[in-house]
Amino acid sequence: MGKKTDHIENSDKYKGLSVKKGSNNVKTTDETSIKNFLKNKKNIKSVKYYVNGILNKNITILSQAITLIESKLPEQQNKAQQIIEACLPYSGKSIRIGVTGVPGVGKSSFIESLGTNLIKQKNKIAVLAIDPSSEISKGSILGDKTRMETLSAQKDAFIRPSPAAGSLGGVAKKTREIIILCEAAGFNIILIETVGVGQSETAVKSMVDFFLLLMLSGAGDELQGIKRGIMEMADLIAITKADGNNKKKAELAKAQYKNALHLFPKTKSGWTPDVLTCSSLTNYNISEVWNKIINYVNYTKQNNYFYDNRNKQIKYWLQESINNSLKNIFYNNDNIKHKFKELEEAAANNKISPFKAADILIKLFNQTK
Ligand SMILES: Nc1nc2c(ncn2[C@@H]2O[C@H](COP(=O)(O)OP(=O)(O)O)[C@@H](O)[C@H]2O)c(=O)[nH]1
Ligand SMILES: [Mg+2]
Hints:
The chain has 369 residues and is α/β, with parallel strands linked by helices. The chain contains 17 helices and 9 strands. It has a 7-stranded parallel beta sheet with strand order 5-4-6-3-7-8-9, with helices on both faces. The chain has a two-stranded antiparallel sheet with strand order 1-2. It binds guanosine-5'-diphosphate and magnesium ion.
């Protein structure tokens, strides 16, 4: 009897199961946990399953793998990392485009319109989102999928809302990882929607080849909350909703923004950003915007900026990852946790300078590592 349960305990099949010891020293297994274990085991899929699925362009499996990336469980995170590593050699062949602008400017509508056109030309489109506000609002900017009804019904389109929680850095890192999987699954155009509030643009800029800024006509820059820095990042500005009564106003805004762009310093890519008007409602100039993007890609591939920029982005993400990991290790260190509160309080009460407090904490961390 004892031998039999030992066998169960040691068997790979049951590894990790809790085996209770009976009163007369005979081990009895908990049947419910065996059942649950086997049920879970069925759901645990191998890295190979995900990688093969992604490379075979299976969208359901791609979605499942993205859920692993978004998971907080270390085991799933670990699996996600292995999947990303395996997909890496098959990634990189897309055009990555960031689409930004204030809420309501028409980003989702634009992506719907452009995406639908591009799918007709046999492209495969993935739409992702970076939404730093989602943590607070719990709503995701692509939650309004209704604006992308046509696109989301297409089999060559993949639309994934922003993960609902997490810091901007965390969400951005995940988005970068998701890009790799989408590319490995054969999506050749990646569109990343982000709200024009500042920080998120910098994160998006660091993962795209082309940065498109959408602007409303008839609303001042201040009203749109668009900072000069964001305009400087743009490879193209498109004035949206250039239809009906709005068309004239849009043309006027175009002239104004063109003038403003003249005053900006030369871009690192050597490309001269332009301003266009467009309408997602009437499809006006949507293909012109696309032509600009293609021209940009050709131009920057010729002068090598396209590749240099991607290399720089990889280096940036390497550093970002290290910085984030180090921060986590530091703040999760038990000694630091304890001392941090104390010194924070002391600094707040002017008993110690914040610099001195930081110095003490770093020294303590070095000692306790
Ligand atoms: N007239 C007109 N309305 C538009 C156009 N694009 C978007 N809209 C409207 O503007 C609102 C916000 O659009 P949405 O795409 O959700 O903006 P987002 O918040 O930037 O993603 C919606 O009511 C759209 O119907 C356009 O080209 N013309
Ligand atoms: Mg939107």
